């Protein structure tokens, strides 16, 4: 029988397992049992869509057998089984789901400490065994195959006999050493306690033939041994238990077992709802975004159970997109077991549950913001973008749900604040909620446009995320207060505006000349009181802001998009004297000055200068 090689990355992971000095080797059993349980789930799931597969609840179980003499521990399941190809693909290559993601994420780190943080999968078997044999027969197939491996050298696959559908994994347990007592994995008591510890919530019975003793018939003091099948797990799923029976560790363990995430969740929401529709939910807010969260591959959704039995692995309809980061499950006895995916979408009960879940997540997040701000900020740093996208998408139809959950960096508080907090602090003469946009907090902080607003003592929200301004434009108002960009044409300061008008009027010819010199680039040139120390800036007229122009330009077909720009001049700045002089004496020079000032303003906005070579030459010209 030819031996095949493992794929390179599998080899590496295997090596890690075999040579692991990891003390928690016992988790291999949890991994294999969870795979067995998944396989039974799949069988059940298949029976819903395939007439040829039947699901009789009593036929589904996991069996553990320990043989001390042969030093074998066998894990048998009656699940979906694997074909020859599947044996090859699923066991010869690291599975995509858990293990592979882990490897990608943690390449740089030392393997040892990460093993314990999440499910490591099938290969963990090699931590305790020197030979692993997998016999499997796939559902609806009459062929069975045997996969066998001693570790890194490779594996072999050949046909074998197997009576029932399902998978049998036989571990040849390593000999004990001075440091490691592998023997204990063959010990009934140990196996029992491992199952209680890790696999108690597995919903299929985990059976083992256990040795018992009873009084011999007809005797009063003589005992005899006999064997009896016992189910070692309590099978009550965690979400059906009472909250007060459960410890945070229980939830965390469940979360990891389910591969919902690699580190413990930020927040657990466990609730039982009774009413028109009754259901249990167990929801988790992850501490970090999953590695594929911002890719197309990411699928949102909750597991959906009908009375404890899985009917859908990722029910997308249960979660709005803006809460797509939530993991977990819903279990309702009011849902029909045999409901098809198509029907499910229109199911009234399901819609009702989805609505309630949405409200629940929102209220839990608001509570977190109120009572545990640091935690909320941690959450917001990971998923705030998602909420902002939520405000923006669907034509703003979700803004009411989301607006209280938004946070932005504040110029006065120097930290993230909510819109509610901003509004509660607004000055009596303040009409708008002011914001400034830019690439980073540091850059926004220096924007000339912020000066006058800060001078008035008004707080400014800093928008440094692409989506921020789009979201706010969709929101339009918060608590009756309109949002106003510090770069917008009018800031709502009446006395300043009057003066600007007056000065612009006084220098009309000069500004008209500059506008002509910048034809097609700016809509207007004018005097501005918004500038204190800086000579120039760009202001914005109309709905499309300069920041939005930047974002939109990065998308295909938007190359020509343009915000209406106004070049604002600080007439109190000393450079204005030179401008006036050039206007009187040297118009060509003023043309050059106009271009220079415009380019300066572009640079401040984080936009590229129009013609870098010309710009450089003009600047050099001045150094004379
Ligand atoms: P994961 O469970 O995260 O997918 P594993 O390494 O634990 O990764 O398992 C790899 C794959 O092998 C599984 O995804 C599954 O397809 C297959 N597999 C493992 N054990 C069984 C089993 N008992 N029955 C059927 N398929 C199994
Ligand atoms: Mg697994």
UniProtKB/TrEMBL annotation:
Subcellular location per the Swiss-Prot or TrEMBL entry: Cytoplasm
Xref: CDD domains: HATPase_Hsp90-like
UniProt cross-references to SMART domains, sorted A to Z: HATPase_c (SM00387)
Subunit description: Homodimer.
Keyword Nucleotide-binding attributed: yes
Protein's recorded name: Chaperone protein HtpG
Annotated region (A), positions in chain: 1-341
Residue ranges annotated for the Histidine kinase/HSP90-like ATPase domain, each copy included: 24-177
PANTHER family noted in UniProt: HEAT SHOCK PROTEIN 90 FAMILY MEMBER (PTHR11528)
Keywords: ATP-binding, Chaperone, Cytoplasm, Nucleotide-binding, Stress response
Listed HAMAP family: HSP90
InterPro entries: HATPase_C_sf, HATPase_dom, Heat_shock_protein_90_CS, HSP90_C, Hsp90_fam, Hsp90_N, Ribosomal_Su5_D2-typ_SF
């Amino acid at each position: 029988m030819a031996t095949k090689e493992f794929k390179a990355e599998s080899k590496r992971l295997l090596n890690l397992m075999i040579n692991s000095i990891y003390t928690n080797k016992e988790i291999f059993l949890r991994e294999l049992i969870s795979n067995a349980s998944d396989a039974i789930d799949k069988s059940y799931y298949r029976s819903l869509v395939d007439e040829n597969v039947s699901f009789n609840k009593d036929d589904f179980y996991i069996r553990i057998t320990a043989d001390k003499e042969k030093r074998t521990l066998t894990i048998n399941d009656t699940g979906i089984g694997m074909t020859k190809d599947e044996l090859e693909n699923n066991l010869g290559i690291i599975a995509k789901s858990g293990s592979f993601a882990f490897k990608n994420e943690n390449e740089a780190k030392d393997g040892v400490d990460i093993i314990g943080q999440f499910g490591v999968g099938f290969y963990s078997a090699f931590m305790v065994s020197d030979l692993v044999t997998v016999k499997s027969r796939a559902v609806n197939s009459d062929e069975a195959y045997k996969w066998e491996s001693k570790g890194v050298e490779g594996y072999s696959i050949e046909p074998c006999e197997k009576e029932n559908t399902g998978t049998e994994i036989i571990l040849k347990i390593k000999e004990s050493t001075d440091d490691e007592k592998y023997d204990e994995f063959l010990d009934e008591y140990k196996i029992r306690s491992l199952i209680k510890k890790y696999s108690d919530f597995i919903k299929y019975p985990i059976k083992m033939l256990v040795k018992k003793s009873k009084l011999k018939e007809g005797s009063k003091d003589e005992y005899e041994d006999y064997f009896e099948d016992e189910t070692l797990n309590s099978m009550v799923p965690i979400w059906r238990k009472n909250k007060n029976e459960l410890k945070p560790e229980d939830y965390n363990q469940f979360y990891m077992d389910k591969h919902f995430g690699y580190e413990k969740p930020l927040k657990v929401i466990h609730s039982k709802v009774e009413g028109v529709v009754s259901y249990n939910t167990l929801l988790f807010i992850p501490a970090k975004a999953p590695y594929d969260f911002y890719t197309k591959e990411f699928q949102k959704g909750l597991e959906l159970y009908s009375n404890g039995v899985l009917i859908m692995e990722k029910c997308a309809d249960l979660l709005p997109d803006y809460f797509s980061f939530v993991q977990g499950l819903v279990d309702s006895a009011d849902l029909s077991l045999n409901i098809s995916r198509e029907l499910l979408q229109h199911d009234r009960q399901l819609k009702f549950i989805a609505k309630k879940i949405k409200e629940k997540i929102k209220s839990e997040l608001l509570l977190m913001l109120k009572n545990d701000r640091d935690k909320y900020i941690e959450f917001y740093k990971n998923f705030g973008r998602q909420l902002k996208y939520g405000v923006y998408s669907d034509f703003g139809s979700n803004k009411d749900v989301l607006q209280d959950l938004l946070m932005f960096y504040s110029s006065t508080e120097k930290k993230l604040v909510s819109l509610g907090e901003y509004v509660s602090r607004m000055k009596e003469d303040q009409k708008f909620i002011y914001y400034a946009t830019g690439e980073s907090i540091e850059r926004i902080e220096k924007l000339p446009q912020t000066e006058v607003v800060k001078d008035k003592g008004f707080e400014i929200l800093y928008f440094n995320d692409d989506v921020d301004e789009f979201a706010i434009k969709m929101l339009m108002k918060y608590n009756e207060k309109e949002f106003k960009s510090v770069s917008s044409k009018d800031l709502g300061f009446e006395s300043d505006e009057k003066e600007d008008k007056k000065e612009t009027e006084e220098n009309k010819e000069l500004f008209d000349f500059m506008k002509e010199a910048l034809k097609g680039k700016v809509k207007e040139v004018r005097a501005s009181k918004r500038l204190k120390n800086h000579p120039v800036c760009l202001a914005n007229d109309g709905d499309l802001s300069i920041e939005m122009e930047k974002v939109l330009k990065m998308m295909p077909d938007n190359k020509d998009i343009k915000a209406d720009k106004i070049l604002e001049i600080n007439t109190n700045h000393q450079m204005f004297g030179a401008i006036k002089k050039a206007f009187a004496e040297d118009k060509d020079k003023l043309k050059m000055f106009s271009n220079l000032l415009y380019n300066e303003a572009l640079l401040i906005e984080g936009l590229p200068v129009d013609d870098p070579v010309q710009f450089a030459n003009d600047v050099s010209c001045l150094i004379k």
